[in-house]
Amino acid sequence: MKRIQKGSELLWLLGTFFVALGVALCSKANLGVSMIAAPAFVIYDYVAPLWSGFSVGMIEYLIQCLLLILLCLIIRRWNWHFLLAFLVAVIYGYVLNFFLFIFRDITFAALWQKWVMLLIGDVATAFGVACYFRTYLPLQIYELFVSEVSTQFRYNVHQTKWIFDFSLLFVSIFLAVILFKDNEGFSLIMMTQGSYHNLGLGTLITTVINSPIIAIMGKIIDSVCDTTPLFPSVKRILFRKPSL
Description:
Layout: H1 8-29, H2 38-47, H3 56-75, H4 82-102, H5 111-132, H6 141-153, H7 157-179, H8 188-193, H9 201-224, H10 232-238
Helix pairs in contact: 1-4, 1-5, 2-3, 2-7, 3-4, 3-6, 5-9, 6-7, 7-9
C-alpha cells in the first residue's frame, strides 16, 4: 500500500481533531472520561453552577498552562516554542467545546451502548495522541510534557506516558474528593453504570489501556504515513530555538 507522503502537518491536524473528538465521545458515554481530561471535567462540574460563562475548554488550557510551568521546573529549561504549545492547548480547548456542543443532546440509555462509545472514544483519543507524537509542529502540553521528560531523562516514551496517565488519575480522584461532599453516593455498582463527577470505571480502564493503544496506533500510522514535513522551512524556524 502506498504511504501518504509528507504528512507531518496532516498528522497535527488529525491529532487535534481526534483527541477532542475522543474526549467528547467518552464524556457522552458517562462512564468516566480519560485520566488526561478528568481534572478539567471535575473542576468544570464544580465551577459551572457558579459561573455560567465557564467551559471545559477554558479549564483545559488553564490546566495545561500550569502543567507547562511544572515541565519547565522539572527539565530546568525554557524554550520559546513552549508558548506555541500553549496556543495549541487553546485551539484544542475550542475544538473540544465545539464537539461537546455538537453532542450536547446525545444520550445513551443502554449500558452496552455506553461501553461501546467509551471504547470508540478511547481509540479516537489514542489515535490523535499517536499523531501528535509524529509531527514536528507544537504539541499539546500533555504530549509535550511526556515527550520532553522522556527525552531529557532518556525514559521510554510509552512507559513515561503510562506513569503520567496514572498521576493525572490520582490528581482527578483527589480533586473530586476535596471539591464535592456527596461521597455517600459513590459505589462500585455506580462505577460500572455511570460516573462520579466524570470519574468511573471507564477512567480506570482508559488509564490502563491508553498507552498500549497509542503504541498500536503509532505502528499503523507509521505503515501508512510518511512524517516528512510538507513545509520544511517551517520546521527549520521552529527548531531554531535557543534556550533562555
